[in-house]
Specification:
single chain, alpha+beta, Aspartate Aminotransferase, domain 1, six-stranded antiparallel sheet, 4 helices, 6 strands, 34% helix, globular
Length: 145
């Protein structure tokens, strides 16, 4: 099982080029804003992961099963239905922040936002910073790209 490869890997497409190709005007404008927000909070340059995820930083993981690989520390994806915000440690310990953020839906490590106007951007920055700090503590050998 340790030989299975992660299908979501860094690509050579620039995040700016990808965002410019987003068809929905609001989703594209929100993605432009998220490029700035994530860069401000993380201090890192974005990297495309697979065809649609914009990530910041990377870490190496290894599961008890033996499967290992690399993945983004935090990031987002401007999907057709909504913006997906990835906070990799998950959202279980961030309920106090989420209580203040605004309108969203939640997955294990995904926050689904219809549009940025539905949330408090300062609280979003706090959430990104909290998750990113937690990832840096869990994975001290993390890489900026």
């Amino acid at each position: 099982m340790g030989t299975a490869e992660n299908k979501t890997k860094p690509t050579d497409v620039t995040p700016e080029r990808y965002v410019a190709s987003v068809e929905n005007d609001i989703r594209r404008a929100d993605a432009d804003a998220l490029l700035k927000i994530f860069a401000e909070v993380t201090g890192l340059k974005p990297q495309m992961w697979g065809p649609s995820i914009i990530g910041y930083g990377r870490y190496h993981y290894k599961y008890e099963s033996g499967r290992e690989g690399e993945f983004l520390m935090t990031g987002f994806s401007p999907r057709k239905a909504n913006q997906v915000i990835y906070v990799m440690p998950g959202y279980t310990d961030h309920s106090a922040i989420l209580d203040r953020i605004g309108k969203y839906k939640l997955g294990k490590s995904c926050l689904y936002i219809n549009k940025l106007a539905d949330i408090d951007l300062n609280v979003l920055k706090e959430l990104i910073a909290s998750g990113f700090s937690e990832m840096k503590a869990r994975y001290p050998d993390w890489q900026p790209e």
